[in-house]
Amino acid sequence: MIAGQTASGDIAPSRFVKKSGAYLVAQCTAADVPFGISQQGSLATPIPGASPLAATDGFPIAVYGEEENCLLDAGATVADGAFVKPDANGKGVTATTGNRYYAIAERGGDADEKMQVVVRFGIVP
After folding, report:
1. Which terminus has fewer CB within 10 Å in the chain: N or C?
2. How many CB atoms lie within 10 A of CB 24?
3. Is 0.85 surpassed by the pTM of this model?
4. Mean pLDDT of 4-12
């Protein structure tokens, strides 16, 4: 885990996040370069009416960094072993040949499912 990060805006659990300042992270969009993946749990206790977000503006957040295994929400169907990049909502989608990737799906999934990934940066061969 990358220690000492604070959310700059709303961040959902298990989403790609980018740097947005010193010790600050924000949820990624498709055009962003990810720094890591947000924590798997929500900020609030899971009771009716509680926020499902991992963090809101100004709150601390745990971030998984390079070479760490974690869960990532799938934005579309992703195959086992696929190279993954963020979509418009910070969820993971398959990266294509010649494009950058920011995780590898150890166990893929369908849209809106959690998939097991290892955070790793590179270019799809």
Report:
1. C
2. 17
3. yes
4. 97
Q: Are strands 60-64 and 2-7 parallel, antiparallel or unpaired?
A: antiparallel
- 94 to each of 32, 49, 80, 85, how far by Cα in Å? 15, 33, 10, 6
d(CA 75, CA 85) in angstroms, rounded, equals 10
Tokens linked to 41 = 């749990």
- Residue 22 DSSP label: T
Determine contact, residues 36/119, Cβ cutoff 8 Å: yes
* Segments making up each domain of the chain, as ranges: 2-65, 70-123
Is residue 4 a contact partner of residue 25, using CB atoms and an 8 Å limit?
no
State the residue for tokens 């969009």: 29
Instruction: Tell me the one-letter amino acid at 78.
Output: V
Q: Which value, in Å, is the radius of gyration of the alpha carbons in the chain?
A: 13
d(CA 88, CA 77): 15
